[in-house]
Design goal:
The structure is a single chain. The chain is of the alpha+beta class. The chain folds into 2 domains: about 100 residues, Rossmann fold (3-Layer(aba) Sandwich); about 325 residues, Lambda Exonuclease, Chain A, CATH 3.90.320.10. Helices cover about 45% and strands about 10% of the residues. It is built from 18 helices and 9 strands. Strands 3, 4, 5, 6, 7, 8 and 9 form a 7-stranded mixed beta sheet that branches. Strands 1-2 form a two-stranded antiparallel sheet.
């Protein structure tokens, strides 16, 4: 008889709000009164007690899981104890005795001894508790559970295999088979184009790279709260404003260091107003005030960024949103090429570069990738442990597409969140070789089919596929063999 807790059994009695008991007594007849309701509850207690053929189990929950508060036994539980012992214990004594008898908890809701279990579920949990605490050989003692339920057998087998040190097919894709070989060969970096953003996922977690870039899985899109503009929309708007602004400067033959700042800011404001209006018409923001506040925040960031940009000299903006291997889209630079770029004669890439600047009188160019988030780049890093390939790989792509030489590439954090800072990477033979070797490592992993769930530190916290791997994958992967993922560890060790 479960549930003998306060307000569970018996339920709290209430009068009918439409016809109170006083009015019911005046009417008479067989209308149910409060005492009748209480007597009905007692009858249920007697029926439940009398239904026992050999033994009666009485239980009550000690914790209300929804409200996270303690529960106390109802007076029915006290009545049962009086019938058994001849006296009524107090609540504290009954709770203490029940806790000692059951020895159960929210994490393991079963008694200490299997013979005290009231159902199959408690019995199985009790058996497992004894086996896990036993110091002797317990192999095979709970094998009966695997024969009772196919789902339990499959779940237990997979969890056991994933907890072992060797990598196996239960972890994910860890080797080539006859079934996977054709697919993997079609997904190599030499067989199909990849974006740099997709390739960076390999260093975060090879399994994330497999799911997102090769299987093309995407997380379910969920609406953002109404009190803010979602980051993706804000980033798209910001990048389109910058591209349109640079084009407008170029058309008006305005040069940032020499043109009057008031005229530059006026042009920037007009560009933002036009682009924001187009976005608002397309997206139809639910709360206009939220949209206007976000646009005002972007306007402030753009003014600060423009004043800082006016201090740089020696470079002229040349190409804006230069795409390669991408379909035509509004805002793309007219010089963009639809065919992808082949790096080192092997690796096929596609993507779009925010800004390419040219040094007059030379064949040197500089690449800028605008960022609207926080600056998480490490000082002096080149490829950021394989997680920031854009500067180097974009430089290789530009050199292959234009025949010019890239002097440097940078991340430009052009918002308050990024502190209007920069992270610049010099492009030389060393950094070019680092980029090629990173592509070779990723391509070799695809060729060999070694794409297990081996996340970098804290990578699972921001992964869209956490539901696929489940929790604690980072802890599990630390126990796995390092031999199979030696290339991955080598890439992560490169700054």
């Amino acid at each position: 008889m479960p549930g003998l807790a306060e307000r569970l059994f018996p339920q709290k009695l209430h009068e009918d709000p439409l016809l109170l008991d006083d009015l019911r007594r005046q009417i008479g007849g067989d209308l149910t009164l409060q005492e009748d309701r209480a007597e009905h509850e007692r009858l249920l207690l007697r029926l439940a007690t009398g239904a026992a053929a050999e033994r009666l189990y009485v239980s009550f929950p000690r914790i209300e899981t929804v409200d996270a508060r303690a529960r106390v036994p109802s007076f029915y539980a006290l009545e049962v104890m009086r019938a058994v012992t001849g006296r009524i214990p107090d609540h504290q004594t009954l709770e203490s005795e029940a806790s000692e008898e059951a020895n159960a908890s929210l994490g393991w809701p079963a008694p200490q001894r299997p013979e005290d279990a009231i159902d199959d579920f408690e019995h199985d949990l009790s058996v497992l508790r004894l086996l896990m605490r036993s110091e002797g050989d317990v192999k095979g003692h709970a094998h009966y559970m695997l024969r009772l339920n196919d789902c339990v057998r499959r779940s237990a087998s997979e969890r056991w295999a994933r907890a072992r040190q060797p990598w196996s097919s239960y972890d994910g894709l860890v080797r080539v088979t006859e079934a996977t070989s054709p697919f993997l060969q079609s997904q190599r970096l030499t067989a199909r184009p990849y974006s740099v953003s997709a390739l960076q996922n390999y260093a975060y977690c090879p399994y994330r790279f497999l799911l997102s870039a090769m299987y093309r899985f995407q997380p379910l899109e969920e609406p953002e709260p109404l009190e803010r503009m979602d980051p993706l929309t804000k980033g798209r708007l910001f990048h389109e404003v910058l591209a349109e602004f640079f084009r407008a400067l170029q058309q008006r033959q305005m040069v940032m260091p020499t043109s009057p700042m008031d005229a530059v800011l006026e042009l920037l404001d007009a560009t933002l107003t036009r682009v924001a209006s187009n976005f608002a018409e397309l997206l139809a923001p639910a709360v206009d005030r939220v949209w206007q506040d976000e646009i005002a925040s972007i306007r402030t960031d753009l003014h600060i960024w423009a004043r800082a940009l006016a201090q740089s000299t020696g470079w002229e903006p040349w190409l804006f949103e230069f795409g390669f291997g991408l379909p035509d889209a509004p805002g793309r630079d007219p010089s963009s090429r639809r065919e992808p770029v082949k790096i080192d004669g092997r690796f096929i890439l596609r993507g779009a570069i925010d800004l390419i600047e040219h040094k007059p009188g030379t064949n040197l160019v500089k690449i800028t990738d605008h960022k609207t988030g926080k600056n998480r780049s490490e000082r002096g890093s080149m490829i950021g442990h394989g997680q920031q390939l854009q500067p180097v790989i974009y430089s290789l792509a530009v050199e292959a597409a234009t025949g010019l030489t890239v002097e440097s590439a940078r991340f430009s954090y052009c918002t308050t969140a990024g502190g209007f800072s920069e992270h610049s990477v010099p492009i030389n033979e060393r950094t070019r070789r680092m980029g090629i070797e990173a592509l070779e490592i990723i391509d070799r992993a695809v060729d060999l089919g070694v794409l297990p769930p081996a996340p970098a530190e804290k990578a699972c916290a921001y992964c869209d596929f956490l539901a696929v791997c489940g929790p604690n994958q980072e802890r599990r992967s630390r126990r796995k063999s390092r031999k199979e993922i030696a290339d991955l560890l080598e890439l992560r060790g490169r700054q």
